[in-house]
Every structure is written in C-alpha cells, then in structure tokens.
Amino acid sequence: MEKTLYTLIVHSENIAGLLNQVTAVFTRRQINIESLNVSASSIKGIHKYTITAWATQSEIEKVVKQIERKVDVLQANYFTDSEIYQHEIALYKLATPAFQANPVASKIIRRHAARVVEVNPTFCIVEKNGMSEEISSLYEELQQFGIVLQFVRSGRVAISTSCFERLNEYLAMREEKYNRNKEIK
Amino acid sequence: MTMNIMKETITGAEALMRSLEHQGVKTLFGYPGGSIMPTFDALYHHRDTLNHILVRHEQGATHAAQGFARVSGEVGVCLVTSGPGATNTLTGIADAMIDSTPIVVIAGQVPTAMLGTDAFQEVDLVSITQPITKWSYQIRSAKDIAWAVARAFFLAKNGRPGPVVLDFTKNAQVEMVDYEPETVDFIRSYDPNPESQEGTLEAAANLINSAKRPLVLVGQGVELGNAQVELRAFLEKGDIPCGCTLLGLSAIPSDHPLNKGMLGMHGNLAPNVKTNECDVLIAVGMRFDDRVTGNIATYAKQAKVIHLDIDSSEFNKNVNVDVAVLGDCKQTLRQLTDLMVQNNHTAWIESFSEHEKLELERVILPEIHPLSGPLNMGEVVRAVSEAANHEAILVTDVGQNQMMAARYFKYTKERSVVTSGGLGTMGFGMPAAIGATFGRPDRAVCVFMGDGGFQMNIQELGTIMEQKAPVKMILMNNNYLGNVRQWQAMFFGRRYAFTPMMNPDYMQIASAYSIPARRIMKREELQEAIHEMLATDGPFLLEACVIEEGNVMPMTPPGGTVDKMMLEC
After folding, report:
1. Which chain A residues have any C-beta within 8 angstroms of a chain B C-beta?
2. What is the SS3 assignment for B37?
3. Is some CB atom of chain A closer than 8 A to the CB atom of B190?
4. Whose CA is closest to B77, among B98, B46, B111, B107?
5. pTM of the entire structure?
6. Measured between CA atoms, how close is A154 to chain B, in angstroms?
7. What is the ipTM for the molecules in this complex?
8. What is the per-residue pLDDT across A38-94, written as a single tens digit (0 to 9) for each?
9. CB-based contact, B183 to chain A, within 8 Å
10. Residue B320 CB neighbours (<10 A)
11. Could B313 and A65 be called an inter-chain contact, meaning their C-beta atoms sit closer than 8 Å?
C-alpha cells in the first residue's frame, strides 16, 4: 500500500495530558509523526493540533477514528496536501563575517523572499515562511557556503481549503441535539 | 423544592462520599492505604449507606467491580490507595476497557505539592491509565470533586461503557470545600448516543430484505444496550439465525430456535461454517475480534456486511463493512425491524442442522455423556447448569474452564455471562463472582475455574469468607495449565513446557477459610455433590478432579479459517 503525507487537524478541549493520548494513537500503530503543532484555536478553551504523518489511507482513517474516540477530542479530520493551505516557519542563524564575505548569500535570501530580522557583529538571523521544500532549499543553498550556525523549523500549520469551519458546525450541532433531547424529556 | 440549596462546607473526602451517594452508589470494593486514609475515614461515617467490601488484593477489587457491573448494569466502584494499590488495579482496568465494562476506580495520590518528587507510593497513574481508560483524571483540588465524580459516572456508563480512573490527591481529600451535588448530562466533545447516518437504515433493511442466507452475529452490545427484546423481535420478523460471541451468549436464550450457538475459535461448528456461506452478515454490538474471525483474509468474503455499533471507530477496523449503522442498538434494531419485511428462511436455517448433528455426535455427546473414564469438564459444566435450572449466572476464569463453561452452560436469562473475553485475564473468575453476588443477590452465581486461575487470586477466599458471599465455586482440577497444554500438544510437539502443575490440597485451603467444600473424582458423585453445593447456604467449593489431558473442541486453529474447524486433535 502506498503511503501519503497526510495532515490531521484535531480540535480538543484544553485538558492536560491530552497530547499524550493523541500521540499514543500513532505510537501504538508504529506510525511516525513528521511534525506536530499544538496551539490555542480561535475558540476559547479549544486547542488545535496540526499533525503530519506518512500513512496509507486505511491506516490514517483508523488513526483519525481512534483520536476522535478520546472523550475530550471534539473533532479529528485528515487531509491531503491538495485539500489544505499549509505553511511552516524557519529561522537560520548565520555567522556575520562569513555572510559578509559571500555577497551571493544575501541574493539567495532575497530570491527566497526571506528576511533578515537581526544583525550584529557575530551573527544574523534570517526568517523564512513557506512550504516545507522551500525552507529546506534555502537551508541547502546557504549551507553551500558553510555559514549556517543554527537552523530550526516549526511544524506545519494548515487550514483547510473548504469554505466552512467544521468545528463551529460541530459545536452547533452538539448544542442543538442536547437541547432537543432535553425538550423531549 | 428549595430554590437556594444551602452549600455546606465539608472535607473533600466527605464530598466524595456525598458525590458517590448522589450517583446512587451503594457498594464499593476496596482496600485502604496511606494516601486514601482520609477518604476511608469519611467512609467510616457512611458505612451504613455505602457498603464497602474489603478485598484481599486491589486486582480483586477491580474484577469484583466488573462482575458487579456486568450482572447489574450499574457502575462498579473501586477505592484503593496510591502507588502499588493503584498499579494493582491496572489489569482490571485494562480488562474493563477491552470488554466495555463500566467501572470507576478511585485511587489515592500523594499531595499535589509532592507530585513529581518520587514521593512514597507515588506513581503517575493518569499517564499509566490513559491508554486503558475512557477517561483518567487527577483531582488536585476539593473544588473539582463533585464535577469529576459526576463526569466519571456519566462517561463510565453512557455510550460504549468503560473504565474511568479518578486519581485523588491527598490534599484534595482533606481540604474544605463548599459542596453542592453536581450532575453531568452533556459533554460537548463526546456524544454517547450518536445517530445513524441518513439512508444507512434503509440500505441495511434493503440488504436484509433481499438476503437469501442472512446471519446475525450477536455481541455484548445487545446486553449493554438492553436490547435483548429488540434483538428477538428483529430475528423473529426476519427469520434470521444468529450466532453469539462469548460475551453475547446470554443476550438471547440458548434454546431459542434461531440461536445457533457460540461463534469463535472454540464456538459451535454451524454458526462458524455458516459465516462463510451467508450472503448478508449482520453484526450487532460486536467488534470482530480475532478469536471470532480467525484468518481475516478468508472471513465472510462472500457476504455483504452490515455492522450495528455505538462506537464508530469499530467500523472497518477489522472487517470492511458495506453498511455501517451507527447508534444504540436498542434504537437501531427497532428501526430496522420496522423497515424489514416478514420473512422466512426455513431452508437456510435447516441447513445448519447437518453441522449441529455432526458436532453433537463427534464432540458434544462424548464430552457431556462419556461412557467411561475420568470426569470431563463439559460434563461437569452441563450438570451444574441443569441442576440450577439453567438460571444461574455463569462466571468463568480463563482457559479451558472458560471455553467449556461457555459451550456447555445454558442461558435462559439475560446478563448471565461474566467472563474475561478480550484480555483473557486468569484470576478474573473468583473476584468477579464475588462482585456478581453483590450485583444480583437474588440470583445463583456459579464460577468455573481451573487450578491455574484459581490460584492467581486465591486470596479472595478471604473476602468470600468474611462476606459470606454465596459464590458457588467449581474448580475443575486437571493438574495442568490446560489450555496452554492443549496448544503444546497440538502445535508444539507435545513438549509440555511448564504446564504440569503441582497442586496444594484445596480441601485444606477451603477448610482454613471455613468454606464448605467437597472433592469428587467419580462420575457417580457428580449429581449429589452439585446438589450439596447448591443446597448449601453461602459459599461452597466443589473440586472436580477432571481428565488431565482433556481438550476443548472443536477448534479453529490460530490463523485458521472459520469454516475449517477441527473436530478432534
């Protein structure tokens, strides 16, 4: 079975220990998490996870269902790259003297639409937003000159390309069902 | 009704007592220790309303809570201390998770200020139990108690039931709190009663209506959803034969003409063979465990599969389904029955009988009515079932005793099987039977054990003695770890690696606990000994010395195909 890089978007209550439960679903099935980003969502008290992993379609379906099964998880969905807009951020620390000695380096930075955010006599910091491959390619080009002192990249953040926010719909549906059942009682 | 409920300032431990009472708890199984002492002190003042059963090991408390829950349909509750007290409950928690049993385990924990310091009897219980619970939560402040207990019970019993752990720090037990009872009836992230997707019921009904050879697989979900009546109406209207999983055995009476027996590795021949002949397979509240399916690659490939379950993560997990009907089967079975046409499948149902006849002649009759030789396990089981008018609750341990008990016991009442299905926990039987006597004091409780499993929680004889719990214990002693021995004989060239076992004198053990007991070796003693056991008020240990190298048959060998069961080895 062919593996695809899937992006999972998970919304959960902000409860300690939940990250553990979400990642354990991958561990149990021996699927490596490529990247993981967890942060507060636009709705107060709800956290949003963006997870990428290589898996087959049937594997990822089971993983998503098992994650959704956790009682404090509100919703879990998986997407292929064509169904999302995704971005990463990376920081590159360069040695200032070496950077100055290689004028091509600053051309590379401009060509990659990256920006220099800090300069001092010892080092400078370059910041780059973009797709995974763009971030890697900037690193490789700078490293040709051996000037990269440190490099760090974030996990992927992604937003689905569909028009509606699934979570809002879900929360509205849950409230509506609860009130409906209450009226019946 | 008073508009202003007066809040009362009480300790956290007292708040726990009130919260448990608010949930309707009357029975708890537990064992005290350092980090839970304030709670046990509060329990002392509630001992008239909260009946605490002191077990002899915390594992026993969890299995007792499981037995209690399985027969009563209520939540079983355990109260234990931190550290080793808590880790001793893990097997029972894992067992309850895989068998969907509603229990709440409340464990003491070191004071919040000492968390993470490797304090005495500290263990990170929440992290350890997360993969084996529906919910695991640490109560760090007395303010959380009313809410956490309400949420724990809501989660344990609603939707697909399961275990919940409350890790109760010592400071939260002693802190003062303004207590007010709380009720949880809604969790936005968890829908315990999901609805089926539009069109799925109609699609399922169409498949069933046009089926020529339909077969229903009955799982424990039917019992958990109290859908026994709905199941019968469904089966009878469609004239559809069924097979039951181990945990679903008593969801329909054994002698119902449409009940074709047990599924799985040691189940009955007919429903297993017919699984690979049916054209529509309807699974109700079951999860296609590998002990049911055998080799999944050859399982029911010819059939359209309809799956009714309350847990959507079960769909397509092991077997790909054509129609997934999400929801509480009490509801979905009723809806399906309404959409179905009255049908009859006489020829199909009659086609089961050649396999039933074959199994009866080759396996069942020789097992339950042997002409000579030592006592057989199946013979003992059937005799006990008959003597109890097939009305007793069956509890089993794990191994040959379990398979023999499941095969040869008969069921006329619902919620009559308590066994460790998914986890296969040896030592489960005796404590689970204790719990069952508290869950259904009006019913006879018979537990079948082997000499291996009996000794795994043998200390619970102390609980039986102290509580005078009317557990009818049938120890089928063959001086072997019989199930493993059978596999060694069949698949490991009869090399009996550490399965022969030297046994103590169980009569002396029973006598030390003042439990009436009897040992039998001969066929002629069987009926009378069973009569004596059932006529005895309170507990009884019947040790039946059975055939040493008896085998459970028929059998689908591991990885084998369900329609190719071995009738003898």
Report:
1. 12-13, 17, 20-21, 24, 28, 58, 61-62, 65-66, 68-69, 71-74, 171, 174-175, 177-178
2. helix
3. yes
4. B107
5. 0.96
6. 27
7. 0.90
8. 999 988 999 999 999 999 999 999 999 999 999 999 999 999 999 999 999 999 999
9. no
10. 11
11. yes
